[in-house]
Amino acid sequence: MKTNNNLYAILILFALNTSLVQSQMRKKSIDSIIQVTSQMPNDTLKVGNYGTLFEILQFSDPDLAYDYTEKALALSKKIGYKKGVAASNFQIADYHRGKGNIDSARLYYDKAEKLAIVANSLITQLFINHSRGDLEKTQGNYKEALTYLNKNIEIYRNTDTINRVQSGTFNLIGSEYELLGSIHIELGNYEIAFSETLKALRFFEEKRDTIRQADALMQLGSIEGERKHYQSAISYGERAYSIYDSFDDVQYKAFAANNIGKYYLALAQPDKSSSYFKEAQEIAMEIGSKEIEAHALTNLGKSYLYLEKFSEAKFFLEKGLLMYRTLDYKRDISSTLNKLGELEIENQNYKSALMYLNESISLAQLIGAKSNLGEAYLHKSTAYEKMTQFELALKNFQSFKSVQDSLFNTRKSQQIEEMRTIYDTEKKEQQIAQQETEITLLEEKEKVSRLQKIALGGGLGLSLLTLGFGLYGIRQRTKRNRLEKEKINAELQLKEAELAFKKKELTTHAMHLAKKNEVLEHVKQKAKELKTSENVGRAYQQLIQTINFDQQDDKNWENFTQYFEQVHKDFSKIVKTKYPDITKNELRLMALLKMNLSSKEIATILNVSSDGIKKARQRLRKKMELSSEESLEATVLTL
């Protein structure tokens, strides 16, 4: 495809990652660009080519890339090219960020922004805001990140056409939506994340920017995976995978393969997941990506652990752990140590398991990884139970429940905060819509006034006719505004109803949690009595009976069912009508699945082993006549 050389150079300079640019860049070798640049006169085109070389080399050879942006800066100063000076400082900031020199990166972003304002380069300002937003996100400064991104969105919305060069326009608002989505994923605001990422996808589809569509699709898959909508996550992931494959973008193809494999493993399909993990590993080895290879190896280990192929699982988990240690990925190290601890418990190597789990706990506490911390305590409790050290087993189980309570409260706080954010956003959008309506009405009135004056000059009859049309227009506009207001009010009422629903669901969770804490307190008192008991064997038996009684108390289940039915009205009736052979215990399992609880959480509540839950799920799938492609969770959620 032909393109203006100046436009092409500047597009690369500002890292416009479109399908067109990627396709053209694949056809150009670095040597040819260097050769062409060396023969060019000292002008803005040469500055653009230096910028191109920086973008190409930024990740493969950052120091050489830095040399070229220094040349771009020196030449821009020499010829008085202010926009080139601003853009070069922006690239220097990116270089320092890639090197991990965050303070230097911030310094150069500040400098580049001031230069871009002086040069009247709105495009550079947009890229600086985007990069700053991404930087603040990686630093965990989400409020600052959102400020930068929303600033860009306002610029895009209020500027019909942003001139990039003498011809053509520039608009990358979709990238802002995509980054907003990724921030809300980390905040746990999955509904907002999905909405923002969907906006990005629609934008890239409209622009026919195929490769960026794949990025948005993969992010949508990640969100659905976090929400445990695994079938939907696979659908998005496979669409992204197909696009990356057609563009020969092997790195992101490997990322997509890893993600798809995780979703299949979550659906208890380890054979399918393993094929994706193996492909990701092969690609990672070809391109030399230690990060992707480490993810693929540990995921393969998890697949083999699920299949109870313990020697293969240990081989892959240990290889992945070694790579994570090299990369210093502390969260992934902790997660892999937990899996190795779980594996050693299965192999009855309890001391080895405790060694892995203790290291995981230390790391998880250091970085604040609560989910990893809770999992480690639970595995330690299991190990001590197997070793018949019941007091230590109880102590670690209590630590696990304490972490789970904290996570539960955090998740619910996040959900409430997300609903508040959605409400505030919609309220702001309604205010904007109302202001636009008022402006339109004022414009209509002004138009009518002008028409009246013209009509008076031309004759009374024409004036009356014009006024009549004007008043009719106002009445129609007022009618439309009234209908729009009614629609907005209806949507607001719907959101308020949804909020009330969420509060009911929160109450259900909280009451269940309160009951579990009550049981634990009872068990703790029994354990204290055990210390001073003369007849230890009998005391142990009483402790076990207490736990079993509390965990299998039908009255507690009746209370739970009562609150559950208030949130999920007629659920039991619908299930029994559709599946008449379902037993009482299977109905309990379906209720817990309806609440989106994990298998481990369900096992704890029902007082059965993980294997028991697996078998119960299989029996339930058989009674519901589900195929291997159908998700049990997704089916239950639709009831």
Task: Please give a structural write-up.
Residues 480-533 form a coiled coil. The structure is a single chain. This protein has 639 residues and is mainly alpha-helical. The protein has helices spanning 5-13, 19-27, 30-38, 44-57, 62-79, 82-99, 102-118, 122-138, 142-158, 173-187, 190-206, 210-226, 230-246, 250-266, 270-287, 290-306, 310-327, 330-346, 350-367, 370-386, 390-458, 460-532, 536-551, 554-567, 571-578, 584-594, 599-606, 610-623, 632-638. Helix content is 84%, strand content 0%. It is globular. The chain has 29 helices and no strands. Among the domains are: 1-120, Serine Threonine Protein Phosphatase 5, Tetratricopeptide repeat, CATH 1.25.40; 172-248, Tetratricopeptide repeat domain (Serine Threonine Protein Phosphatase 5, Tetratricopeptide repeat).
CATH-scheme architecture of the domain at 1-120: Alpha Horseshoe
Tally of contiguous helical segments: 29
CA(first)-CA(last) distance: 52 Å
CATH topology of the domain at 1-120: Serine Threonine Protein Phosphatase 5, Tetratricopeptide repeat
Tell me the major beta sheet. none
- The whole-number mean of residue pLDDT values reads 78
Q: Give the DSSP E fraction (strand runs of 2 or more residues).
A: under 5%
Short characterization:
The protein has helices spanning 5-13, 19-27, 30-38, 44-57, 62-79, 82-99, 102-118, 122-138, 142-158, 173-187, 190-206, 210-226, 230-246, 250-266, 270-287, 290-306, 310-327, 330-346, 350-367, 370-386, 390-458, 460-532, 536-551, 554-567, 571-578, 584-594, 599-606, 610-623, 632-638. It is an all-alpha fold.
